[in-house]
Amino acid sequence: MRWLMACVVLWSCGGDPWKAITREPARTEVVIIGSLHRVHLHDEDYPMRILEALIRAAEPEVVVAEIPPAGFARVSAAHAAEEEDPWLTSFPELSAVVFPLHDEFGFELVPGSGWRRAMTDEWTGYWERHPSGPEEPLFQQVWTHRERRLGEEGADPMWIHSPTYRNLTQWGDNALATHADLGEADPLRVCRAHAVRVDAAIRAHEGKRIAVVFDARRRWCLERAVRELPGVVLHDTRALIDTLE
Predict the structure, then answer these.
(1) pTM here?
(2) DSSP bridge partners of 63
(3) Phi, psi torsion values for 105, nearest 5 degrees
(4) Is residue 25 packed enough to be buried (19+ CB in 10 Å), middle (13-18) or exposed (0-12)?
(5) Distance from C-alpha of 165 to C-alpha of 167, rounded to nearest angstrom
(6) Per-residue pLDDT of the chain (245 residues; tens, 9 = 90+)
């Protein structure tokens, strides 16, 4: 009820539930821009050009990209040589948007993924053995609702960056972690690994405007980690989307 009343007040005043993004010198500022990877190649609501426009609008001095530090040199070299690389195939936004913008603007590009090969092996192995996921009725109810809502809403960037999407993906990750034995690929363990990398990148660039370009389904845990950092301002990405319309 309090949430509903807050929305009523905002609408009656003609305002939005997020603030315009402004830059203050020497302030550490973070914008998390959710990516949908290969979905950007064919989706009309959130194509590569919108992802590119969001990064441009953020005006970052630093971009934290979804690349493991151990593979950063290899992935960068593959992009520069226009060669194939498994990571670039899975994350086409890197070659299509992130690296080209880095070349154009010269912002610092930092690898921020906590993903490891063991996670890939355990994730793939689990879903090969259990294509429908855990059999527990509670999990199936949660997952069915999650998939239905994601399918209904599609890839609209305002939805992707909304609190409802964030809460829905967190709910799904919690349910999967509770009922599936995923080992290294446990979604909460994966989230913690990502959060550690992003946290370190932000701490190493205090006083900068930082754009974190990352899997939208992990936004919930990255936002939580950033909010715990003292002296860091986390901007609402929806304010950037408003500037594109």
Answers:
(1) 0.90
(2) 109, 211
(3) -105, -20
(4) exposed
(5) 5
(6) 333 333 433 333 344 556 778 888 899 999 999 999 999 999 999 999 999 999 999 999 999 999 999 999 999 999 999 999 999 999 999 999 999 999 999 999 999 999 999 999 999 999 999 999 999 999 999 999 999 999 999 999 999 999 999 999 999 999 999 999 999 999 999 999 999 999 999 999 999 999 999 999 999 999 999 999 999 999 999 999 988 86
